[in-house]
């Protein structure tokens, strides 16, 4: 897709998109088109169920006295208050609507729109951003796609004031989108193609952007004492890995301590000896979603040359059953020296994260640490598929994450941590056990991780098990991998930590 921004005359070729507010109020350009067509726009609305509500579209083919191939009326809902995400969703819906209808070019006119105090140029950039995000599709392994099934849309022009400013804003948003699409591609890959070694190799792509990438193999991990992570991969023929990515975007900053983001990268999770049911197990290819998000975040930040120092660290393993797999009842000694009784080998993600969390704190001394993981099925029971759960030892950072999530429509909800939950993972045989019982499963998993946070380091755990993958289309994403977390954390960094 090619994206551009113009002012002046509105194109008279291809499809044209104009806004309509709830109640049928036309934008200025829509009013002009209605007049030019002899009232055909309003007549089309009157003879349809289109009310201008948010998300509604009305397609008018070959309108009278109009040279454009079609006029697409886009409902935006109530005129005030619009949000920036409404413009992104508009871009996504336009792409979806027109890409399968043979149109190759479209112009979106956003005259008269205001949202969150942003000028028209910024809103125009976000329309294109939403369309770019929606254009992603995972068809890497399809060999017989018919031409008529391929998206036809090749270019989008957004008509707005100050097209130069719109282009400058979009160029930054485009880098963020590339990070999201990188994550979606990684999460979508089948487990025979994406396994710990090949996943680690994908990080090398970031070196071209100036990211320093270090990969630890099993021998190095063993020397370091990362026995909790290594135990998860014992049953697999694939070697486990740890990937460390460093972006030094603020070398002159007086605050040299980096922000740290840690991701769970279990490239396939059978549950190990505590084997999962067969039905739906194919979905466990996205159990590396936390690591995928960290990869995408690093690509986004480095791509737009973010003025901040960041470390991204991911533990990569494949959890398989075999004669060499860890067993329920095993006790492992983590990198930190703390011992863990493994009562359920399907509670493996917390073992992976434990060692990486400890390593990052010791080696990089971060000013804060945020981990992401498709950690528990219990979070779906609590929050469903649209909101991620967060757990933290820091009120300020939690509040900032909630605000960032609201801004980009990747919402998070804070759940509690407390001593009464922490006691549930005490073990009779070791320092702790890796499960806390049937109830409060997401909380006890977070309590487990908190035991590896040292010296009061500000920390947030984000459980993305319910949001990393979607079974239905969304305005800016086809069903499948969502890339959740990249835009959330990029906005969090941009709003609060850049020099």
Automatic annotation (TrEMBL):
Mn(2+) 1 binds at residues 269, 346, 348. Residues 344-351 form the Cytosol aminopeptidase domain. It is found in: Cytoplasm. The active site is at residues 276, 350. Its cofactor is Mn(2+). The keyword Chaperone does not apply. Gene3D superfamilies: Leucine Aminopeptidase, subunit E, domain 1, Zn peptidases. Presumably involved in the processing and regular turnover of intracellular proteins. Catalyzes the removal of unsubstituted N-terminal amino acids from various peptides. Belongs to the peptidase M17 family. This is Probable cytosol aminopeptidase. It comes from Kiloniella laminariae. The lineage of its organism: Bacteria, Pseudomonadati, Pseudomonadota, Alphaproteobacteria, Rhodospirillales.
